[in-house]
Design a protein that fits this description.
heterodimer; A: alpha+beta; 2 domains; five-stranded antiparallel sheet; 6 helices; 5 strands; globular; B: mainly alpha; 15 helices
């Protein structure tokens, strides 16, 4: 029992070390569910996150009238001091950051709009905005459409368009 | 004279488990409460909607366990698991104060934690991973008896993952041009997501500060593994540096969960250092 447990621990430690070797990605990609639980420890490296990601959307009516871009959420300029203990806002911003980066990586890899539009990150963002739009918008009508945009910026860099989606009809709920 | 009795108390495995669980329970409580506060993220209309996530996994659409996974990961069940995590964390805290170690509670918390990643890998971070590592190891260790050899290697596993985490983080930074040229720190702190306006102003006006901080991070992370070879009295410096590093990240980057998750791994490391040098 001792040696079985020791081997398991040793194996996971070894995987934690080896998983950072990009040449071995072809092995890790064969076991995505399992590898999800093997720790990866390359924080903010090799390329750190250098931008804030902004999610905007606009509605387009069937008669072609286009609403202004609306930002879904805005990041605070200064984080409150209590965030060193309590920071629930990071859940949404980290989730969106991960989705945006995955979407960009995938769209650069496939170069096919149809595949991009059916990718998981794209569908997650679209589903979220579809629900948001149906709940919040005064303009919202059953036949209106939606489009989303991802912008990046920071205190150093100006706004830049990272991704513009296709135009999709809003769901009926 | 500094009283190091508490530091040397980590020679005792029971005390090590107790302190680990104490810190772990606080971290689990905060992160679970944060998940509850931001529940809208996980709902069907949220950005981590299960009805969308499950489309990307073969196991949730075409497998014998699909029904079970769908049952455990739908909105109602998942919200229930968050409440159970909160309750479990409170129980863990109370148990740790009274030095009660419950393998079933640890296993349950490990299972509920796994549900988060099964539902969606997006939005997770290193703190989540460290929580899983500690819960996994302590579940096995406590199940076999905390004074057993398996319990000892469970703590060695936690210490190993902690040391590896810093080493890999340091090496990947050292091999990165952005970090070596020292503009990585400026770029990170220029963001509102992980940055801080006051600290950004400080390092952008003083290049030497950004450069020296970058190199201090490289050296600390890459050489942290040497703590295993140091006598406990000398290892204190590296250990305190590590805790201050996470405190800094919590204050200036909003990485509050890292502070508790990684701090919870330190008792295991201290125990291993004592085991190596003071036997």
């Amino acid at each position: 029992m001792f040696w079985t447990v020791a081997l398991i621990f040793g194996f996971i430690l070894l995987l934690s070390l080896l998983r950072e070797i990009k040449r071995l990605d072809f092995i890790w990609n064969r076991f995505p569910i399992f590898m999800q639980f093997v720790p990866t420890w390359s924080f903010f490296a090799p390329l750190p996150n250098m931008f804030d990601y902004h999610l905007l959307y606009r509605e387009i009516s069937n008669n072609g009238k286009v609403q202004e871009w609306k930002e879904v959420y805005s990041l605070e300029d200064q984080r409150p001091i209590y965030c060193l203990i309590w920071n629930p806002e990071k859940r949404f911003s980290k989730a969106f950051l991960d989705l945006a980066m995955d979407l960009i990586r995938f769209s650069e890899k496939v170069q096919d709009n149809k595949q991009v539009c059916t990718s998981l990150p794209y569908l997650q963002i679209l589903n979220y905005l579809d629900s948001l739009c149906r709940k919040q918008s005064n303009f919202c009508q059953k036949l209106s459409k939606i489009q989303f945009l991802i912008l990046t910026n920071s205190r150093i860099y100006d706004y830049d368009i990272l991704f513009l989606s296709e135009i999709h009809p809003l769901s009926n709920g | 004279m500094i009283n190091l009795d508490t530091y040397y108390a980590f020679k005792d495995i029971t005390f090590t488990y107790q302190v680990t669980l104490y810190i772990l329970s606080i971290g689990l409580f905060i992160t679970s409460l944060e998940d509850l506060k931001t529940w809208s993220v996980f709902q069907s209309e949220g950005i981590l909607s299960w009805k969308v996530s499950k489309l990307g996994l073969r196991y949730t659409t075409k497998s014998p366990i699909a029904k079970l996974l769908n049952f455990c990961l739908n909105d109602k069940a998942f919200k229930g698991s968050i409440y159970l995590r909160i309750f479990g964390a409170i129980l863990l805290f109370i148990f740790s104060v009274f030095n009660i170690i419950s393998p079933s509670l640890l296993i349950a918390l490990f299972f509920f934690k796994i549900l988060i990643a099964l539902r969606s890998p997006y939005g997770l971070d290193g703190a989540y991973q460290m929580h899983l590592v500690i819960l996994f190891a302590l579940s096995i260790g406590s199940l076999c008896g905390i004074c057993s050899k398996i319990s000892i290697i469970s703590l060695c596993f936690i210490a190993g993952e902690l040391v590896i985490s810093y080493f890999i983080s340091g090496i990947t930074k050292l091999t990165s041009p952005a970090w070596r040229k020292s503009f990585a720190l400026n770029a990170i702190f220029s963001t509102r997501t992980y940055g801080h306006s006051l600290f950004f102003r400080l390092i952008s006006q003083r290049n030497v500060l950004a450069t020296s901080m970058s190199w201090m991070i490289f050296l600390f992370e890459t050489l942290f593994f040497l703590v295993i070879f140091l006598h406990p009295m000398h290892a204190i410096v590296l250990l305190v540096t590590g805790l201050l590093f996470h405190l800094f990240n919590a204050v200036f980057m909003g990485l509050n969960d890292f502070l508790f998750a990684f701090s919870a791994a330190y008792p295991a490391l201290i125990y291993c250092i004592h085991k190596i040098h003071l036997n």
